[in-house]
Amino acid sequence: MSQGANDFLTPYAPTIGTATDIGTGRPYNNGGATVTFTPTGPNAATSYTVTSTPGGYTATGASSPITVYGLQSNTAYTFKVKGTNAAGTGEESGASNSITATTVPDAPTGVSATDVGTNRPYDNAAASVSFTAGATGGKAITSFNVIPDSGQPSAGQSSSPITLGGFPSAQVRTFKVTATNANGTSAESSASSGVMLTTVPATPSAPSASAISNQCNDSVSWSAPANGGKAINAYHWTSSDGKSGSLSGTSVTVTQECNCTNI
Questions:
Q1: Which of 10, 101, 128, 241 reaches 20 to 30 Å from 53, CA-CA?
Q2: How far is CA 25 from CA 9, 22, 182, 189, 207, in A?
Q3: Does residue 232 have a pLDDT over 90?
Q4: Could you name the CATH architecture of 109-197?
């Protein structure tokens, strides 16, 4: 048969090569695989099509290798290749080796935040953020990060919950979470509901004291500080001569040890 006659024949089935997962950086449920093959026979193809099993995901190219995208995470696939020329499409190759398509993890779900106010210093508020891990993407999740609506994210932690501090007092904050595996980092989760972050109050102003006329007493007062996000319920005072007390207001009368005559 002449070469000219061959021009009217479809391509021979290619010889399948190797399929390789390319999970690095691939979004969840959008994996990829590179498939190699070798053309055979005298009838040159102008393009080749790779098809996955299962799913029927396809990609077309002029030569080997060809990369197929859209593969579902953590799912096993094989691939076949066929060529096309002016005469039509030839037969498929045999099936490739099986690969498991991997991607970054799915985003965590169920994110909630709780104030951690007890004994937190003023302007160093903290939140405890809980969440449920999503699917791994085919490779084990190695860490989770909490991302606040403003400020620095947490360093990677291995599980829920994660506590993140350093926030100003008395602010409402929301949080998102990401998951990371060997392929990369997931999309961000949905945001938590807002939570008011509280701390102990700020330091009161320096008190001022003045003697009460015709009495052995001093009047001591101070300005209320920022409350840290919760109402101040008591002030505690001490004097240099060892007196002390607690009260709810911002002034106190302190009796001094003295000899005086009231007029």
A1: 10
A2: 41, 9, 9, 17, 60
A3: yes
A4: Sandwich (2.60)
Cβ atoms of 78 and 53 closer than 8 Å? yes
The structural domains of the chain, with segments of one domain joined by +, span 3-101, 109-197, 208-255
Q: Quick one: average pLDDT of 150-166? A: 91
Name which of 151, 145, 152 is nearest 178 in CA terms: 145
**Does 109-197 match 3-101 at the fold level?**
yes
- Please state whether 86 falls in left (phi above 0), alpha (psi between -120 and 50) or beta: alpha
Asked if residue 209 has pLDDT above 50, the reply is: yes
Query: How are strands ordered across the β-sheet holding 162-167?
Result: 109-115, 125-132, 162-167
Out of 3.40.50.300, 3.40.50.150, 1.20.1250.20, 2.60.40.10, the CATH code matching 3-101 is 2.60.40.10
Task: Tell me: pLDDT of 262 over 50.
Answer: no
From residue 198, how far is each of 15, 78, 119, 127, 192 by CA, in Å?
A: 67, 55, 10, 9, 17
**What is the Cα gyration radius of the chain?**
36
* pLDDT band (50, 70, 90) for residue 252: confident
Q: Is the pTM of this model over 0.70?
A: yes
What's the pLDDT tens digit per position in 67-84?
999 999 999 999 999 999
Residue 213 has a pLDDT of 61
Instruction: Check: CB of residue 97 under 8 Å from CB of residue 16.
Output: no
Is 254 in contact with 241 (CB distance < 8 Å)? Answer: no
